[in-house]
Every structure is written in structure tokens, then in C-alpha cells.
Specification:
- The chain has a single domain, classed as Hydantoin permease (Orthogonal Bundle), CATH 1.10.4160.
- The chain has 470 residues and is mostly helical.
- Strand 1 and strand 2 form a beta hairpin.
- The radius of gyration is 22 Å and the shape is globular.
- The strands form two sheets. A two-stranded antiparallel sheet has the order 1-2. A two-stranded antiparallel sheet has the order 3-4.
- It is built from 19 helices and four strands.
- Helix 17 crosses helix 19.
């Protein structure tokens, strides 16, 4: 067996015997005596909690509101919800099931599919994840900075916070913290899934309820909950909605494949992936209910971009009784959610470095964090004194547009098609471990999810052609 890094509730190799149960034996290769065992989730509940911890974070509270603000509010919410149900859940199931079938991350999975070109496809996914993590670390640094300022009782506006080189310094701080965690293993991060994230959800939900009492709440609901049917005919809207669905669920980024490789055979992947996707979507939509009443109350432009949430949040905390204490709790928990996603993403990058190049954990962690931080410097400088721009927009927004709203869709669709066409259907369906359901006399199974993966590229090409013809 090859060594694999475990994400979130998973433990380092040296701890695997003391914290996990017996690994599934079906299809397992012989493991030499003394070699580290392949770790796995203890239960379906642990898998769901870890997956929620991995995907719920800044993609929901930071990215979703600003994407909705830039793409028509309610029309975007409708398109996003449809993409989650019709595309996001099936592809999530396919990726997790494929990882479960071969017990490997993205590089190992695609090598299993085709030894010649498969590793290139796997490394492309890892490279894209590095690009996404490069600016994700910057935004996570903002959460750390805001948490520090909240504790100090000195919350600043976003313009004041990003003056000078704060974004760069906090990028370096986040990278250093991630390196330390990756170096020592991932013990203790199970708390993020079990305690901190539920608290974050409670605080976000409470603030969403409070925000409905603000003067701009009615205008916000008009913008956020009503949709224009004509806008739903625009291909650009669907591309943005699909990109957010892929981004927030970590589709096409190797995470779901890696998580799936640690799933015991008795776990229903369909039920688990559906629970994760619906929880993720609920947090995203609730975040919008929290942000947009603030936006319209304080006259903030809803299409301001990636700084939207960090512009809006300090406003509401200043108007709340005991707002400083709520701000401290919110930003500390937001940082915990962001940081756990950073560590999870970097752990996925670290795993193939150890597997393919046989690097020691220290060297693999140094390479993973070092390369990602280096690529994140331009994004940090785009919100600092230099103000690095590309085409008139901050470099960070440019990176998010290219990777988070572009390449990730291609990677997710192509990857799902390769999985659905090239892995044996019977084995893939078996890895889902879904016995099917009955609705009266009708019996239906999750096999249709494989068909979604197979024919989604055709639907995507049709949408692109309609956009060109339009």
C-alpha cells in the first residue's frame, strides 16, 4: 500500500492503529509488516462531519454572497440550487465513489484508469488545487487578521485593514501555521467538524435572523429572493452558478476523491454526499440572508466583488449590542473554518508528493506550503499598497475568475466523464453502496448519477454553443 495523508478527522500514519477500526479487506493489496495502514473514517457520521468541515468555509460565507451580488441575486440563487441538485450531488458521488473503489487520491485514481496519461490528469487536478489554495490562503489570512483585530477591540474597515502589506503578512502567517499542522499530523482537527463548525453555523444563522430587522432587509429580500426568469436564459449565469456549486463542494479539486478513498465499504456514499451538499448549500444561502441586508442598509454596492463580506461584516458588529463579543466569536470561528479547509487542501497536495516522490513528511509539507504561498503573493499584493491589477480587477479576483469560475468546471466535468466511462459501471455502482429506494411500486437506484457524469460534457458544450450563437 502507498502512504496517504488523511484529511481533518484522519490521523497521521503513526496514530492510525490507536484511533481507527479495522480497514475494509475487499480488494486490498498485501501490506508488508510494519508498513502504515491505509486510514479510514470510523463511521458514516465521521465521514459526513469531516466532509462538511472540508467544504463549509469561505466558499460559503465569503464567495457565495459576492458571486450572488455580481450575478443577479435571486436569479443566481435559483440557478445555483438547480446546479447543486442536478450536477453537484451526482458528481460528488462519482468522485467519492471512485476514490472509494481504488483507495487512492487523484493521481493514483487516474493512473488506475490509464497508466499512460492518467497521472498527467491527476497532477493537473493537484496543480489546479494549488492555484485555488494560493488565493484561498490570502482570504484565510484576512479572517485571521480580523480575528486578531476583534480580540484587540479594533475592527477596521476593509480599506484600512488592507492598507500597507497586511494581506502579505497574514498570508505568511497562515502558511506557517499550515506547515506546522501538516508537519505534526492532523490531530485535533476533528474538533472543527464536531464543535467549531456547528457553532459557526449557529452564529451565521443568528446573524441572518437579526439582519432581517435592519432597514435594508426588505430591499435585500427583493434582490436576493426574487428572480428574473429572463436572466435564467443567460448561459453566463449558469456558468457562474455551476462554478460556485463546483467550488463550494470541492468538485474537480481532488478533495472528494481523497476523502472517498478513506470510506469503509459499509458507508452509503450517495446518502453521505447528498447530506454534505445540502448542508453546504443551506449555509451558503443563509450567509446571503446575513450579508445582503447589511449591504443595502449601509449602501454597499452588492457587486463590489471579493471584498464584499469583509466590507459588510464590520458594519453589523458595530451596530449590535455586545457586537464586539459576537465579532470575536464570529471571526475566530470563521478563521477555524477557513484554516481547516486550508489544511485539508494542502494535505491533498501533500499526499501525492509523498506517494509519487517518496518525500519525507517535512519535505513534502515544505514543498506544498512553499509553492502555494509563493503563488499567493500576487493575490496578496492585489489588496495591499501596490494594488496589483489584471485587466482592471485585483489579481486575486482574476485568479478566482480563471480557476474558481473557469478551470474548475472543466476539471470537474472532464474528470466525472472519465470516471463514469472508464471505470466499470458495476464496480463503481458497488462502491456507492446504495441499495436503491422504492416509491410505491417503483424502484430506482443511483445508477442515473453515472449517466449524468457520462453525458454532462455534451450538455456543457450545448450551453457554450448557445452562448456563442446568442
Amino acid at each position: 500500500m502507498r502512504r496517504c495523508a488523511k484529511v481533518f478527522v484522519l490521523v497521521s500514519e503513526s496514530e492510525s492503529h490507536s484511533t481507527t477500526g479495522p480497514r475494509r479487506s475487499s480488494g486490498m493489496a498485501h501490506v508488508a509488516e510494519g508498513a502504515p495502514t491505509h486510514p479510514f473514517w470510523k463511521s458514516q457520521r465521521a465521514y459526513i462531519l469531516a466532509s462538511v468541515a472540508g467544504v463549509v468555509g469561505l466558499g460559503n460565507i465569503w464567495r457565495f454572497p459576492y458571486m450572488a451580488g455580481q450575478n443577479g441575486g435571486g436569479s443566481f440563487v435559483v440557478a445555483y440550487t438547480f446546479c447543486i441538485l442536478a450536477i453537484g450531488i451526482p458528481i460528488s458521488v462519482l468522485e467519492a465513489s471512485a476514490g472509494n473503489l481504488v483507495d487512492r487520491g487523484p493521481v493514483g485514481l487516474f493512473r488506475h484508469i490509464n497508466p499512460r496519461w492518467g497521472p498527467w490528469a491527476g497532477w493537473f487536478i493537484v496543480t489546479m488545487l494549488v492555484a485555488i489554495m494560493s488565493y484561498y490562503l490570502v482570504v484565510s489570512g484576512w479572517t485571521l487578521g480580523y480575528a486578531v483585530d476583534a480580540v484587540r477591540g479594533d475592527l477596521k474597515t476593509f480599506e484600512e485593514f488592507t492598507a500597507g502589506f497586511n494581506s502579505l503578512w497574514y498570508l505568511l502567517a497562515i502558511g506557517g501555521l499550515c506547515f506546522l499542522v501538516l508537519l505534526r499530523g492532523l490531530r485535533g482537527l476533528e474538533m472543527t467538524g464536531r464543535v467549531l463548525l456547528p457553532l459557526l453555523v449557529v452564529i451565521v444563522g443568528g446573524l441572518a435572523v437579526y439582519a432581517q430587522s435592519l432597514p435594508g432587509a426588505h430591499e435585500a429580500r427583493e434582490f436576493y429572493l426574487r428572480f428574473d426568469a429572463r436572466a435564467l436564459l443567460e448561459p453566463h449565469l449558469w456558468r457562474m452558478a455551476a462554478s460556485q456549486a463546483f467550488y463550494s463542494l470541492a468538485i474537480g479539486q481532488g478533495m472528494l476523491i481523497t476523502y472517498g478513498s478513506y470510506v469503509p465499504r459499509n458507508v452509503n456514499v450517495v446518502t453521505s454526499s447528498t447530506a454534505v451538499a445540502l448542508t453546504n448549500s443551506a449555509v451558503s444561502i443563509t450567509a446571503g440572508l446575513m450579508v445582503f441586508p447589511i449591504v443595502f442598509t449601509f449602501g454597499i454596492a452588492p457587486d463590489v466583488g471579493s471584498a464584499l463580506s469583509f466590507t459588510a461584516f464590520p458594519q453589523i458588529f458595530g451596530s449590535l449590542p455586545g457586537g464586539l463579543y459576537i465579532a470575536i466569536a464570529f471571526y475566530l470561528l470563521l478563521f477555524a473554518a477557513a484554516f481547516s479547509s486550508c489544511v485539508g487542501g494542502l494535505a491533498v497536495v501533500l499526499a501525492p508528493l509523498r506517494d509519487e516522490f517518496r518525500l519525507h513528511r517535512r519535505k513534502a509539507a515544505l514543498v506544498a506550503v512553499g509553492v502555494t504561498m509563493a503563488l499567493g503573493i500576487p493575490s496578496a499584493l492585489s489588496f495591499s499598497s501596490p494594488g496589483l491589477l489584471v485587466g482592471g480587477i485585483p489579481f486575486l479576483d482574476f485568479m478566482d475568475l480563471v480557476t474558481g469560475s473557469g478551470v474548475v468546471i472543466v476539471a470537474g466535468i472532464v474528470g466525472a466523464a472519465l470516471i463514469a466511462w472508464l471505470l466499470p459501471r458495476r464496480e463503481l455502482f458497488g462502491a456507492m453502496n446504495d441499495p436503491g429506494r422504492r416509491l410505491g411500486p417503483l424502484h430506482y437506484s443511483a445508477g442515473w448519477m453515472i449517466e449524468v457524469g457520462r453525458y454532462l460534457p455534451i450538455a456543457a458544450l450545448a450551453i457554450i454553443l448557445l452562448g456563442w450563437l446568442g
